Amino acid sequence: MSDIEIKGPDGSFGAYAAVPQATPAPTLIVIQEIFGVNDVMRELCDEYAKRGYLAICPDLFWRIEPNIQLTDKTDAEWQRAFDLMGKFDVDKGVEDLKATLQHARGMDACTGKGGSVGYCLGGKMSFLMATRSDADCNVSYYGVGLDELLGEAKNISRPLLMHMASEDQFVPKDAQAKIREGLKEHEQVTIHVYEGNNHAFAREGGEHYDAKAAELANKRTIDFLGNHLS
User: Fold this and answer.
1) pTM of the model
2) What is the DSSP string of 76-140?
3) How many angstroms separate the CA atoms of 57 and 30, rounded?
4) CATH number, position 43
5) How far apart are CA 38 and CA 14, in angstroms?
6) pLDDT given at position 68
7) How far, in Å, CA of 160 to CA of 170, rounded?
8) Which residues form a coiled coil (predicted)?
């Protein structure tokens, strides 16, 4: 497990990489929440590596300030996280993710197969990886702002798994309905709604963590990745 550097279209940026015991392995780009590449994201990478994936989490906030590592435990950190999200350039972020995937596929430890899994902001970015990249599959956990991106859904040509929380405080009910309606006929998209759960229900230790829902979502994710990246 180590920090690596990736060369992107606008310069080099850091990423955390967790390498599985057996290589070559499929790559999984783990996409950060609004708190940066913090302990939560690093631990997720470590867990995916234990399951046989070359897991890489790139620093998407590097243009604003590199190496951001916040928690969800204080109001000041939440405010800083929202400020970073407001300054974040989504389009450039997608290019960084594509560069990360390309970098990973060129590593000796990678089979050439590669997908993404993103949480919160990362859930939005994984949706965009499905619409704008050649990733083999993508997983979105409680992505924000997806109702505004449905025009890109026609570009999805690889499997996309989406986890939505029915009581998501950052995705209003009307937005959820719009997302489900807009994607319900798409043959590459599978949506699971977790009734009674709030945003970030799978973030262990978080305010809205729900062990049962998280276990179910994570099992679905592992099964999905096994089907499409093996």
Assistant:
1) 0.97
2) HHHHHHHHHHHH--HHHHHHHHHHHHHHHHTSTTEEEEEEEEEETHHHHHHHHHHHHS--S-EEE
3) 5
4) 3.40.50.1820
5) 13
6) 96
7) 21
8) none
Distances in whole angstroms, Cα of residue 24 to Cα of each of 51, 55, 116: 13, 12, 17
Low-confidence spans in the chain with pLDDT less than 70: none
**Residue-range definition of the domain harbouring residue 200:** 2-229
**What are the residue numbers of the active site?**
168, 199
145-163 residue pLDDT tens: 999 999 999 999 999 999 9
Which amino acid would we find at residue 193? V
Rounded to 5°, the CA angle 222-228-230 comes to 85
25-45 burial: b if 16+ Cβ within 10 Å, else e = bbbbbbbbbbbbbbebbbebb
Measured over the CA atoms of residue 106, residue 224, residue 122 and residue 41, the dihedral's sign is negative
- E strand or H helix at 217: helix 211-229
3-state secondary structure of 188: coil
CA distance 199 to 217: 13
